[in-house]
């Protein structure tokens, strides 16, 4: 009994330490991402499993840079861009990010509604999408920041459901190991296209902004306490200079502690994200591709196709996971957008403020959710929304990654906390891969 209690106590402490990195990683596996991974498995079997190994270090490097920027500057990525770079870069980023995030929200809401309709077929998907949107607005606007973070952290458990699904599909584990560690490459348009889609859905620009801002929010809360301690030091110490120096040293020690914690948080979050991606490709690749292959374009198609092949348990796990990840990812999407606008236009808004204190901030969240809901009923299908999102993300990702790399190596901004050699190598590799993906994605559109 003692051992069991100690285990759960340690587990709770460990889970409590995790924060923005865990949420960012888990939210990356949103319904739109699940649709992409399902498509990869259904069409190409286990041939794309190796991508999970490739994308993990790339994601961890870029998100780690964003986290470090947020911690060291105590502000979001948008504020840093606004302060140190031409306004044109900032405005171009907004022009492309706004429609991309809105379309992503719309596709995720539609996916959640469609899967809920499969579980409860007597209730039309429209009612579910409206209900989910209303719940999300209430959840984000009326709950305090700490409660939102706590709920998001526990919602990350929903993505773990996908790790269970492959065990109902009975894969050949020898083949799984081979396809994981020996990359398969086919130089045909469809295969390269799915590789581009996987890369685009795992390394998404909105996550960069969310990560930096969440770390900034956390360090700002601690900073306020440090300022209180600094005032106490000034009262207790005869020399003001000595008090200031002592406060500065304490702040630097605090930053160092936070950086270690954040590195672990980001790495665990990105590892979780890639594990889920791996197991979704494994489940659909084993169950659907092995049984003749199926054209999967949406999450509800993937869930429906799994049931007769892998049984009702896999179907239920897959469906519940989609709804859970939707509730996790959509607040991150609309929250990222609202922080981008607030930091750009100087609005005093954040998730730790109440609605009456930050009306423009919450206004962006509400409007983005409503527009996201409505685009499903004005002739834009979830598939089209995903395609447009991929194009817009593809265009902006290389630019934003290049800027993040530049900020991360800028001593005027980062001081003693600039990028290390490994971070720069992985960041540069991510930049080149995302640039190549963007070029190929645009080429595909002209070809078709």
Automatic annotation (TrEMBL):
Record flagged with keyword Transit peptide: no
Keyword DNA-binding attached: no
Pfam family, one: Nramp
Protein origin, superkingdom: Bacteria
Alphabetized InterPro entries for the sequence: NRAMP_fam (IPR001046)
Topology of the protein relative to the lipid bilayer: Multi-pass membrane protein
Parts of the chain that traverse the membrane: 88-105, 125-143, 150-169, 191-210, 268-290, 315-341, 361-380, 386-405, 425-446
Entry keyword set: Membrane, Symport, Transmembrane, Transmembrane helix, Transport
Subcellular localization(s) per the UniProt record: Membrane
Name of the protein in question: Nramp family divalent metal transporter
Source organism per UniProt: Pedobacter helvus
């Amino acid at each position: 009994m003692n051992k069991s209690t100690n285990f759960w106590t340690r587990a709770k402490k460990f889970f409590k330490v995790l924060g923005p990195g865990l949420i960012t990683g888990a939210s990356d596996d949103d319904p739109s991402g699940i649709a992409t991974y399902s498509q990869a498995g259904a069409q190409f079997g286990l041939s794309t499993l190796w991508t999970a190994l490739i994308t993990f270090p790339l994601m961890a490097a870029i998100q780690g840079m964003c986290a470090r920027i947020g911690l060291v500057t105590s502000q979001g990525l948008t504020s840093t861009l606004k302060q140190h770079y031409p306004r044109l870069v900032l405005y171009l980023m907004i022009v492309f990010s706004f429609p991309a995030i809105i379309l992503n929200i719309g596709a995720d809401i539609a996916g959640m509604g469609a899967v809920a309709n499969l579980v409860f077929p007597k209730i039309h998907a429209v009612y579910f999408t409206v209900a989910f949107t209303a719940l999300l607005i209430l959840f984000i606007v009326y709950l305090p920041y700490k409660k939102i973070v706590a709920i998001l952290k526990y919602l990350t458990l929903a993505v773990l459901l996908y790790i269970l699904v492959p065990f109902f599909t009975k894969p050949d584990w020898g083949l799984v190991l081979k396809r994981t560690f020996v990359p398969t490459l086919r130089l045909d348009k469809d295969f390269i296209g799915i590789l581009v889609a996987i890369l685009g859905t795992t390394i998404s620009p909105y996550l960069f902004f969310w990560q930096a801002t969440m770390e900034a929010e956390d360090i700002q809360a601690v900073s306020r306490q440090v300022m209180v301690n600094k005032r106490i030091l000034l009262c207790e110490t005869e020399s003001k200079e000595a008090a200031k120096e002592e406060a500065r040293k304490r702040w630097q020690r605090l930053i160092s502690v936070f950086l270690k914690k954040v590195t672990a948080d980001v790495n665990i979050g990105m590892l979780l994200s890639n594990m889920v991606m791996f197991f979704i490709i494994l489940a659909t690749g084993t169950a659907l591709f092995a049984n003749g292959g199926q054209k999967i374009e949406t999450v509800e198609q993937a869930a429906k196709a799994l049931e007769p092949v892998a049984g009702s348990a896999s179907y239920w796990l897959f469906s519940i996971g989609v709804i859970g990840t939707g509730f996790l990812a959509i607040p991150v999407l609309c929250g990222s957008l609202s922080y981008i606008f607030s930091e750009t236009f100087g609005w005093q808004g954040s998730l730790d403020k109440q609605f009456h204190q930050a009306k423009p901030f919450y206004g962006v969240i509400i409007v983005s959710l409503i527009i996201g809901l409505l685009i499903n009923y004005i002739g834009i299908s979830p598939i089209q929304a995903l395609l447009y999102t991929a194009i817009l993300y593809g265009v902006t990702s290389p630019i934003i990654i290049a800027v993040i790399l530049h900020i991360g190596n800028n001593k005027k901004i980062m001081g003693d906390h600039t990028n290390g050699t490994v971070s720069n190598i992985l960041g540069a590799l991510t930049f080149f891969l995302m640039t190549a993906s963007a070029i190929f994605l645009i080429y595909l559109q002209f070809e078709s």
